[in-house]
Amino acid sequence: MKKIFPLVFVALGIYSVQAQNNVPSETDLRIYGIINSVSADRIEKDVRALAGFGTRNTFSDTLSDTRGIGAARRYIKAEFDKTSEACGDCLDVFYQKDLVTPDMGNRIPKEAYVVNVVAIQKGTKYPNRYIIMSGDIDSRASNTMDFETDAPGANDNASGMAGTMEAARVLSKYKFENSIIYVGLSGEEQGLFGGKGLAEYAVKQGWDIIGILNNDMIGNIEGVDGVISNRDFRIFSEAITAKEETDRERNARRFYGGEVDGISRQLARYVYGNVKKYMPEMNPMMIYRLDRFGRGGHHRPFNDLGFAGIRIMEAHENYTQQHQDIRTEDGINYGDVVEHVNFPYAAKLTAVNAINLASLAWAPPAPKTVQIGGIVEADVKLKWTKVDGAIGYKVYWRDTTSPTWDYCRYVGDVEETSLEGIVIDNYFFGVSAVGANGHESPVVFPNGIMR
């Protein structure tokens, strides 16, 4: 277990200074408890169980208790049910499904239901606001249409699914203002059908989605490029999410900036900053791309509908262990088997998810509108709509070439402020809402101009 005592004294020191100035503490000691509670052993147990079903191809056996996608999703639901029972039925666990047919894509060999396993931990103050963590249930052989050949999918993506189940076990012991969804998505290898189905379901239910943290491969530390690292991981995010802006807003970006400041990018920056604060031993790498080159993940259907979504995954992939039939060829062992999964690393990335789920679920909503002014003036001005649950606001700014929010100022419970001597032309700006517990919303980039 990590020793957190020096951090305790630092945090208390910060709190005492900040309390005198009515500034909420920026450190929540509960976060360290969450990190320390994530178990590599429990993740290993789930990865081995899921890989042990032989194949989890979307079109594999649904009736067997020992093989196929049906056995896998029943195992996941049973584990979510156990977690719920342990926390006094704090999770609403259910299946969400959609029918897919061969005419819907070239990776669908027959009609079948794509079935997601959903577990919802309802928030106490904002029950209709949701932050989501997802893993994928399904796996594939070299030929994605082959639903009979063994495809254990230990890293892709039993690791992400096991991490999602473990996050549920850890966070179910806490109460949150916002709701958290832990979900196993199916049909990823056939065209992201599980994510599409859940995103559309969210729209029909009227859910207010804070964002989705999609975990796809979080267990490999030995890259095909020869790099071995148990600290690096990638955060993929789209610059401007589909349906996020109107044509008028798109044209305005030529004059006001914001090409890399959509809601998914702000979610990525949130995760980056939180990890730097609470898990400084980790090296989060923000990748300015929806996903790996020419590829896609289960956050994309949420982006398509205008929701924030990012992909969290290992930094150093080994392609001989992805989408490969198990075999030995030219001295190379191919196949996505359990032996290639590093469980302590998977636990670290699970903790990355858990602390960000908790921070967002403890935070107030973000301001709906943020206006900016200060053209041809020496000071920049910002004005925003106040939100329920915030005791104050932070103004952030950064160099226009910086990927992260590098400067900030707590301005208190106000709805507008000026930053004296900071010229609007030289920086980008944003505003977040801060709760009494110190947790804050993602930063909102200005979406209006002060006249």
Automatic annotation (TrEMBL):
InterPro entries of this UniProt entry?
Answer: FN3_dom, FN3_sf, Ig-like_fold, M28_fam, Peptidase_M28
The Peptidase M28 domain, residue ranges: 116-227
| Main localization (coarse) | secreted
Q: Does the keyword Membrane apply?
A: no
Gene3D superfamilies, per database record: Immunoglobulins, Zn peptidases
Tell me where in or outside the cell this protein is found: Secreted
Name listed for the protein in its UniProt record: Peptidase M28
- What organism is the protein native to? Leeuwenhoekiella nanhaiensis
